[in-house]
Design a protein that fits this description.
The complex is a heterodimer of chains A (417) and B (228).
Chain A (H helix, E strand, L loop, with lengths): L6 H6 L2 H6 L2 H32 L4 H8 L1 H20 L10 H6 L8 H40 L4 E3 L2 E3 L2 H37 L2 H55 L4 H27 L2 H6 L1 H11 L4 E6 L6 H22 L4 E8 L2 E8 L12 H11 L3 E5 L6 E8 L2
Parallel strand pairs in A: 3-4
Antiparallel strand pairs in A: 1-2, 4-5, 5-7, 6-7
Helix pairs in contact in A: 3-4, 3-5, 3-7, 3-8, 5-7, 5-8, 7-8, 9-10, 12-13, 13-14
Chain B lengths: L15 E5 L3 H13 L3 E6 L2 H9 L5 E5 L9 H12 L4 E6 L4 H9 L6 E5 L6 H12 L3 E3 L1 H9 L12 H11 L4 H8 L3 H14 L8 H12 L1
Parallel strand pairs in B: 1-2, 1-3, 3-4, 4-5, 5-6
Classes of the chains: A alpha+beta (417), B alpha/beta (228).
Protein name (chain B): DNA-binding NarL/FixJ family response regulator
Pfam family, one (chain B): GerE
GO molecular function (chain B): DNA binding
């Protein structure tokens, strides 16, 4: 059984398992450590405010007071890491580190939630924690320790509850255990509530969403990269393997053709050679759809010319780029063109296609325009949908304009890093 | 060794050749074809460095080289070919490529003028007779460009450049010239008389800014290919 990922899950779980887990101790550690943090923060705050007010006539004082949000920000940083003890999630990485704040102090907006939290911590939270720890831990602790205390001659006197004989002391152990169990639950509940409050103030949901989104974007780019690497590998394997063997095969058949006299044997050899050539051409056209060698060697312009020449529709290519682009962008650009052309050939019944590509204002703009029947759309799972994903993974935009009756324009725009 | 071949069906002028191709399978296939045709393969090497070393101190007729070779697998062969041409302007160079790339064609045609130049797709080698014929023509100083490359350049628009002044028919004739065809063969391909082809060729020569000192047919083809 794995440890529940956060304290709330643990609290909702089975009682005995919870008591045997590390959660109550973590909660204790959290509450106990609240006190020094709060008192330390309070001391620094009081000192700063005091000295700041006293020296306010001088510029120093004003500067000190202006530094209060910075103190709050340090407190917030400490609290965010303490929070992980219970909630187990790392704070968003785009929360501003205090060093950056120090540098950009004048231009930074004051983080009011952090200031508010610091006040709450130094004034209220630690007091609550001290009281709760006393009630929920000390009381059951005393009951449990009653036999020892009574024997040592220290009878217990807690208002209506008096324990002064050994029998009473031993009787107190049972309720003590129950109270301890309840107390640990209480401690954990309080710690959980406090950590959640901390998170609400210091790490609000929208910040977490932004972080999750950034993470998602990173992982999507990673996926596209991995995908691209894989395609290159397949292309390399095909080029160095099957493709080369087929070329060698046509050579051997060509040699055989020289040696065999006219007749049925020669006819068969010629037929075999034709078949080998067809296989080679089919393999080439597959590779063209994966990651053609010319793209690796010469970049988008050359590769687009190649795929345009191989298309069964007349294609006018007007692509002019300033040198080579980053690999993933080249791959995406090539696939926009090759997939769009494939679509045109399959569905558009077009008489001609224009491919246009330029880099302008730091963005690569590619368009594939055909004079076909139109009605193309980015269906899920289709080739165009795949293109949209790839382009968007590079922070680009992908659009298909295709009214019924045509013309169809496929347009991809991508920032050039 | 001639076997069942009738004399003259294969190339007859024996050539001294250095062959550079990094894939062993293809290198040996090429060597076998060349030797079968009676040529002498002085060396069959697997990278551009070795090619330059061999080609440096041997009397050669033709160098046949793959474009992509180690270490970078980009255009080592092409650069080696250009370097060889600088050192030995009369050396004929036949370049083999796995695919059509304009950059290659342009680079090749821009190399120092001199001996013959050829650019063929590797697939072409399987058609042994045609391949050997192309080789012989390159060795004889002609320019041989793969028909697929020519077809591809033909498909392009020529909105500007010297070819814009040509008629559609003249362009067709020029494209066939680029494939290395004779006037007679062009006439057959276009279903016109040889006289008509001659007329078109003359008109092409007149329209294109050609160097009168060079072979006008080759110059016209080069102009055509460069403009592609």
């Amino acid at each position: 059984m794995t440890t529940p990922p956060d304290v709330w899950t643990a609290l909702r779980g089975r009682r005995w398992r919870f008591l045997a887990s590390a959660w109550p101790w973590r909660a204790l550690a959290y509450l106990v450590s609240t006190v020094p943090v709060a008192l330390g923060a309070a001391a620094v705050l009081v000192l700063t405010v005091g000295v700041g007010l006293l020296t306010a006539v001088l510029v120093v004082g004003v500067l000190l007071l202006a530094g209060l949000p910075l103190i709050a920000s340090v407190v917030a940083a400490v609290e965010r890491s303490r929070m992980q003890l219970l909630l187990g999630r790392r704070p968003p990485s785009d929360s501003v580190p205090w060093r950056t704040r120090l540098r950009a102090l004048r231009s930074m907006p004051v983080a009011w939630p952090e200031v508010g939290y610091t006040v709450l911590l130094t004034v209220v939270l630690w007091v609550v924690d001290v009281v709760a720890l006393n009630l929920l831990v000390t009381f059951p602790g005393v009951l449990l320790a009653a036999p020892v205390l009574v024997r040592a001659g220290a009878p217990i006197d807690m208002g209506p509850l008096q324990i002064d004989t050994a029998t009473e002391a031993w009787l107190a152990v049972g309720p003590g255990l129950l109270l301890l169990a309840a107390g640990l639950h209480g401690v954990t509940l309080l710690a959980a509530a406090q950590a959640s409050l901390t998170r609400l103030l210091l790490d609000p949901p929208h910040a977490r969403l932004a972080e999750a989104l950034a993470e998602l974007r990173r992982s999507r780019v990673g996926l596209v990269d991995a995908f691209e690497t894989e395609r290159r590998r397949i292309e390399r394997d095909l080029h160095d393997g099957a493709q080369q063997r087929l070329v060698a095969l046509t050579m051997t058949l060509g040699r055989a053709e020289l040696e065999i006299p006219e007749g049925a044997g020669l006819d068969l050899v010629r037929e075999a050679q034709g078949q080998a050539e067809t296989a080679l051409e089919e393999l080439r056209s597959t590779v063209r759809g994966i990651h053609p060698r010319v793209l690796v060697d010469h970049g988008v312009e050359a590769a687009v010319h190649e795929v345009a020449d191989a298309a069964e529709v007349p294609v006018t290519v007007d692509v002019s780029l300033p040198g080579r682009l980053p690999g993933p962008l080249e791959a995406a650009a090539y696939f926009v063109v090759s997939e769009a052309l494939t679509n045109v050939v399959r569905h558009a019944r077009a008489r001609s296609v224009r491919v246009h590509g330029r880099v302008a204002g730091g963005r690569l703009v590619l368009t594939v325009l055909d004079d076909g029947v139109g009605g193309a759309n980015v269906r899920s799972g289709g080739g165009l949908a795949g293109l949209a994903l790839r382009v968007e993974a590079l922070d680009g935009e992908f659009a298909v304009t295709s009214p019924a009756g045509g013309p169809t324009e496929v347009r991809a725009t991508c920032p050039v890093p | 060794m001639p076997g069942s071949l009738s004399p003259g069906s294969l190339s007859v002028v024996p050539l001294r050749i250095v062959l550079a191709e990094d894939a062993a399978l293809l290198r040996e296939g090429l060597r076998a074809i060349l030797e079968r045709a009676g040529h002498e393969v002085v060396a069959a090497v697997e990278d551009a460095e070795a090619l330059l070393a061999y080609a440096g101190h041997t009397s050669l007729d033709v160098v046949i080289t793959d474009i992509r070779m180690p270490p970078t697998h980009t255009d080592e062969g092409l650069r080696a070919a250009a370097e060889l041409r600088r050192r030995h302007p009369d050396l004929a160079v036949l370049v083999l490529s796995a695919y059509v790339a304009d950059a290659y064609v342009a680079e090749l045609l821009d190399s120092t003028p001199g001996g013959g130049i050829g650019y063929l797709l590797k697939d072409r080698v399987g058609h042994v007779r045609e391949f050997l014929d192309s080789l012989a023509r390159v060795a004889a100083g002609e320019t041989v460009i793969d028909p697929q490359v020519v077809r591809r350049l033909l498909g392009r628009r020529h909105d500007d450049g010297p070819l814009a002044s040509l008629t559609e028919r003249e362009r067709e004739v020029l494209a066939l010239m680029a494939e290395g065809r004779t006037n007679g063969s062009i006439a057959v391909a276009l279903f016109v008389s040889e006289a008509a082809v001659r007329k078109h060729v003359g008109s092409i020569f007149a329209k294109l800014p050609l160097d009168p000192m060079s072979d006008r047919r080759v110059s016209a083809v080069l102009a055509y290919l460069r403009d592609g």
